Amino acid sequence: MTTASRSSADRTALQKAAQAVGAVFVLVGILGFIPGITANYSSLGMAGHDSAALLLGVFQVSVLHNIVHLLFGVAGLLLARTPAQARNYLVVGGAIYIVLWLYGLLIDHNSAANFVPVNTADNWLHLVLGLGMIALGLALSSNRRGATTPRTR
């Protein structure tokens, strides 16, 4: 008899990576709503550049920003169910973070265009996340293909 859910031993490294990234995003989303972990919590705004709340005292957040982290994390947990979905989550999600990094570089942080909001620390974190997610998705999917392709003589 087979079960509907797969044990963690049955998951590929690619799926485990997507699951771990998703879990981290869920955790970050939750932490953004916790006073003390988020400095200036009383100034946490719904959205926009005027939210002065700082996750870990460094990364500018808002209610919208925290919700996006939560949703992005839940997506990672759900998409980790299959190797193909896990790869797509990491590669496409990484590309989204690269676009967000570029967006953060191009906008005026004190303007209405900074609706997420982001600051300089967020921008560079988005670059590292984007590159890291893409690298994980590509490296682990190529390892998986190579490991499952039988060699014949």
Task: Decide which structural class fits the backbone.
Answer: mainly alpha
Helix content: 55-70%
Number of domains: 1
- Could you tell me the mean pLDDT? 89
The sequence of SSEs as H and E is HEEEHHH
State the distance separating the first and last CA atoms: 37 Å
**Global Rg:** 18 Å
Strand order of the largest sheet: 1-2-3
Count of DSSP E strands?
3
Q: Which parts are unreliable, with pLDDT below 50 for 5 consecutive residues or more?
A: 144-153
Q: Proportion of β residues?
A: under 5%
Described by strand count, sense and barrel closure, the largest sheet is:
3 strands, antiparallel
Based on CA inertia axes, which overall geometry fits?
A: globular
Give the count of helical stretches.
4
Describe this structure in words.
With about 150 residues, the chain is mainly α. The protein has one domain (about 10-145). Helix content is about 60%, strand content about 5%. The protein contains 4 helices and 3 strands. The chain has helices at about 15-30, 65-80, 85-105, 120-150, and strands at about 40, 55, 60. A 3-stranded antiparallel sheet has the order 1-2-3. A hairpin with a 3-residue loop joins strand 2 (about 55) and strand 3 (about 60). It is globular and about 45 Å long.
